[in-house]
Amino acid sequence: MKRSAAVAVVMTIVLSFVSSLACAGIGARVYGGLTHISYSDYNEWVDDANEELGVGENLDNMKWVPEFGGELYYSVAPMFEIGLGAGMILGSTEYSFSELTSFIDFNHKMKAFPISANLYFRPSVPFVSMKPYLYGGGGMYYSRLDFGFKISDGTDTWGYDAELSTWGFGIHGGGGMEFSIAPTFSLDIGFRVRWADISGYEGSATNTDGETIDVFLVGDTDGDGDAIYDIAPLEDKADYDEGSVDLTGFTIYIGFKAGF
Fold it and tell me: What's this model's pTM, rounded to 2 decimal places?
């Protein structure tokens, strides 16, 4: 008898807890899409480099990049939710040219991992299957850059591999539409606009001789109006302007949202 009563009490507590979670409006969403970024320091350098290389030998700009993420949300009021999420923005480009025994190889990868907090406003509308929303928020961005460069004149080869990283801050906002698929499951289509210009990249580079030095990201001109986007020894930081990764732009995404 006592055991049955204890089980009944435990079951009551569990059911109450589950019920409170459901009423609280706790859930999760995942999304993926394409993001258009400015990345002006890098893309200006690419444009100048392509003018020097001529037709047929081009580096690629980094403008449209994939973005993925997920978020946990909690309803604080009938029309308001708060969310905490994390995501990743990935971009890469490479260039290769060879002639006889000479060659140039270049590759560059950009990775950013935003950790964000959002406030959602979901107005009450008479539509059952479609619900609009607006949101805004901000977050911290951990970002990493990888560079690989090698050049050979057929006799000697020189180059380096470098990795730099930093933290930055960004703000964003947007809106979208949810399409109900099931009582607690919906399709989410939306957009986001973002401002996040991240600087302060430092790291290390190892050249083909095996020497490793501390470096930082350079974004400067050479005095002739040509853009430079490269690395330089950390000890020479006072001689250059720092480069940045400008993630400012917009995202078009599709996602799925589930309530618990």
Answer: 0.83
Handedness of CA 191, 197, 201, 207 (dihedral sign): positive
What distance in Å separates the CA atoms of residue 212 and residue 209, rounded to the nearest whole number?
9
Q: Kindly state the tokens that stand for 136.
A: 């805004």
Identify the bridge partners of residue 242 per DSSP, sorted by sequence position: 218
pLDDT in tens, 201-240: 999 999 988 899 999 999 876 666 667 888 999 998 888 8
Beta strands in 78-184 (DSSP E): 80-99, 102-121, 130-152, 157-182
Q: What is the distance in angstroms between the CA of the first residue and the CA of the last residue of the chain?
A: 34
Q: Is the dihedral of CA 68, 72, 76, 77 positive or negative?
A: positive
Helix/strand/coil for 90: strand
Contacts of 84 (CB under 8 A, 6+ apart): 71, 72, 73, 116, 117, 118
How far apart (Å, rounded) are the C-alpha atoms in residues 138 and 169? 8
Which of 148, 48, 47 has the alpha carbon at shortest distance from 96? 148
Q: Which helix (H) or strand (E) is 5 found in, with range?
A: helix 2-24
CA distance 63 to 34: 10
